[in-house]
Structure formats: structure tokens, C-alpha cells
Specification:
The protein is an alpha+beta fold. It has one domain (1-53). It contains 1 helix and 2 strands. The chain has a two-stranded antiparallel ribbon. A hairpin with a 5-residue loop joins β1 (3-9) and β2. The radius of gyration is 12 Å and the shape is globular. It starts with a strand and ends in an 18-residue tail after the last helix. This is Transposase.
Length: 53
């Protein structure tokens, strides 16, 4: 069993919003929930993750 921590941070790396899910849960659904609550930003840093292609 494993877990994932999903987080949104400020420019200094301090968490603004975060939650934990089971490891098999899709990152996409959790990212949509986190990003939907944010105001507009000038830029975003994110990881691409895994791709089967």
C-alpha cells in the first residue's frame, strides 16, 4: 500500500493547499480539484508524470 501527497505551494515552497490520496488514485483528478480553487497565475511549475506512450 502506498499514498500520494498532492500540494499547491507559494513561490517559497510553503503549502497553500494539499491532501493525500491512495497510491492508485489518478493524479489528474486530484490536480483538477486543487487547481480549480486557485486564482489566475502568471506561471505554473508542474511535473509531467508518467505516460504509457
Amino acid at each position: 500500500m502506498n499514498t500520494k501527497l498532492h500540494a499547491v505551494t507559494d513561490q517559497n515552497g510553503r503549502p497553500l493547499s494539499f491532501f493525500m490520496t491512495a497510491g492508485q488514485i489518478s493524479d489528474y483528478t486530484r490536480a483538477a480539484a486543487l487547481l480549480g480553487s486557485l486564482s489566475a497565475a502568471q506561471w505554473m511549475l508542474g511535473a509531467r508524470g508518467y505516460d504509457a506512450d
